[in-house]
Amino acid sequence: MTAKRVFSGIQPSGDIHIGNYMGALRNWVAMQDEYAPVYCVVDLHALTLPQDPAELAGARVRTAKILLAAGIDPGRSLIYYQSQVPQHAELSWIMGTFASMGHLGRMTQYKEKEDKGGQNLGLFSYPVLMAADILVHRVHAVPVGNDQTQHLEFTRDLVERFNSRYGDFFPVPEQITPPVGARVMSLKDPTSKMSKSDPDSGSRIIVTDDADTILAKVRRAVTDSGNRVAYDVERKPGISNLLDILSAFTGRSVHQLAEEYSAAGYGRFKQAVAEAVIAGLAPVRQAYLDLDDADVEWIMAEGAAVARSGAEETMSEVRRLIGLG
Ligand code: TYM
C-alpha cells in the first residue's frame, strides 16, 4: 500500500514564528515517518499583499531554509516553491468557477486583511488557490493550525461541487491539527493569534531568534493580574498561552506544568518558558545558520521538477474530465 499523501503550505511573508512552528512545521516533520508529504512555500499567495521584490525573494529562500532546518527531509518529502509549478494557478482558475462569492466574502482572513486596506481580487480568491494547492496533488489530509479551518471547509465544498458534476475525482481532504499549539497567541495581546504581520515584533518569537532575544520577549510578554500560575484561558489568557508554549516545548501537559509552577511566581515561570523555547529552537537555529542559499535553491528546483510532473498528471485528467483534454 502506498503511504497516504498530505499537503501543506506556508507563506513567505515575514519571519516564521513559533506559532507556525508549533501549529504546523513540527507536525510536518513528524508526519514524514508515516505519510508521503508535499510541502510548499506559497509565494503566489504572498502577492495578495504588496511585496517589495527583493524582500520577497529573500523571504522565500529564508522560509525554505527554515523548513529544511526544522527537519523537512527532501529525501522523504517533496518541497518546492508554488510559483515554479504553474499547474497550481491553472487549477485555481478552474476551481474558481465552482466557488461561491458569498462563501468567499465570509472568510475571516479576507475580512481582516480587507479591513487593513488590502482589497484586491487575489485576496478575495485566496482560498481558491489554496484549494488548488491541495487538490493538484489529490491528497487526503492537510496538517495546519486551526486558523485554516474555514479554508479547509471551503476546499471540501469545492471538492463536493466538482465531484458531483464530474464523478468522484478529488479525495475530500481532512484537516490535521496538533493537540497542543494549534493556536499560539500573541505575546502582547493573548486574545489574538501570534501573527507574522503584527507590527510589534515583541508579539512573536521567531524560530531563528537568539537566546537573549527569546528571553527578553518572554519577560516582556503580557501576563495577567495576580501572581499565581494557572491554566485558565478566559481569566488568565497570557499565562495560559505561556503554559501552552511550555507544554509544546517540553511534551508535558499544561495541567502538570500549572501545578508545578503554581507558586513559583511569574518571574521564575517565565524563565522556565524562555529556557524551554531556547533549548527547543537551538538545533533549528544552528541548522539554519549552517545551510547555504545555493544548496537550498537547488533542492527547491529539484522538488519543483518532481511536483510539476505529479501535478501535470492531475491536470491532464482534469482537462479531459471537463472537456478540454
Ligand atoms: P501561514 O503562512 O499563515 O501559516 C503557516 C502555518 O502556520 C499555522 N499558524 C499557526 N499555528 C498556530 N498558531 C499560530 N499563531 C499560527 N499562525 C499560523 C497556519 O495554520 C499554517 O498551517 N493559507 C495558508 C498557506 C497555504 C496553505 C495551502 C496551507 C496556502 N495553500 C494549502 C495548507 C494547504 C497560510 O496563510 O499559512
Number of helices: 14
Number of domains: 2
- CATH architectural label of the largest domain: 3-Layer(aba) Sandwich
- From the alpha carbons, calculate the radius of gyration and give it in angstroms: 20 Å
pLDDT < 50 stretches: none
Main sheet summary: 3 strands, parallel
Question: How many beta-strand runs?
Answer: 5
Helical content, roughly? 40-55%
Report the end-to-end length measured between terminal Cα atoms: 30 Å
SS-based class = mainly alpha
Order of adjacent strands in the largest pleated sheet: 1-2-3
CATH superfamily of the largest domain: HUPs
Reported by name, the CATH topology of the largest domain is Rossmann fold
Order of H and E elements: EHEHHEHHHHHEHEHHHHH
Protein model, in words:
With 325 residues, this protein is mostly helical. It folds into 2 domains: 5-181 and 293-322, Rossmann fold (3-Layer(aba) Sandwich); 201-288, Tyrosyl-Transfer RNA Synthetase. The chain contains 14 helices and 5 strands. The protein has helices at residues 18-31, 43-46, 53-70, 87-96, 101-105, 108-115, 121-124, 126-135, 149-166, 211-219, 237-250, 254-261, 265-290, 293-322, and strands at residues 5-10, 36-41, 78-81, 141-143, 174-176. The protein has a 3-stranded parallel beta sheet with strand order 1-2-3, sandwiched between helices. The protein has a two-stranded parallel sheet with strand order 4-5. The mean pLDDT is 95.
